[in-house]
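This is your field. Have a critical look at the following sequence-structure pair:

***
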Amino acid sequence: MSDTNGIQTGSIVALALASLLISGVVPAAPLDDPTRPPVAQQPNTAHKAVHKPIRWTLNSTLVSVQRRAAVINDRVVGVGEKINGARVVEILPMAVRLRHNGRDITLVLLKKNIKQPSRSGSGKS
C-alpha cells in the first residue's frame, strides 16, 4: 500500500513509532473516570486487613488417654499446632491455652456447650 506521495503507509507508522521511542515520549496511561462514584472504585483491602483483630472461638474439646484435641474456629487442632498465628500449648476438658506473640491466651468452653459423659448402664426405669 502507498499514499499519494508514493511512500508506504507501513513505513510512516514505523517511522512515527521510532521517533516516539527516541524522543522518550510515551503515551500517557488512561486516566480514571472523574465522574465515577467513589463506591464503584476498588477499596484498599490491604489497609483493612491490618486492623482486623484475631479471634479464636473454642467449639469443643476431646480429652482422653489416647488423644487430646480441640475444635477452634471450626478446625480440629492438637497440642503444638498453630491456628491463626497462635500455638496450642495445652488442651484441658473445659479450656485450651494458646500462646500468641509471647502471651498466653486461655479459651474457655461456655457451659451450654459442655457435654457430660454418659453414665454406663443408665436407662429409663
The chain has two helices and seven strands. Residues 47 and 53 are 13 Å apart (CA to CA). The first helix runs from residue 9 to 23. The chain has a mean pLDDT of 76.
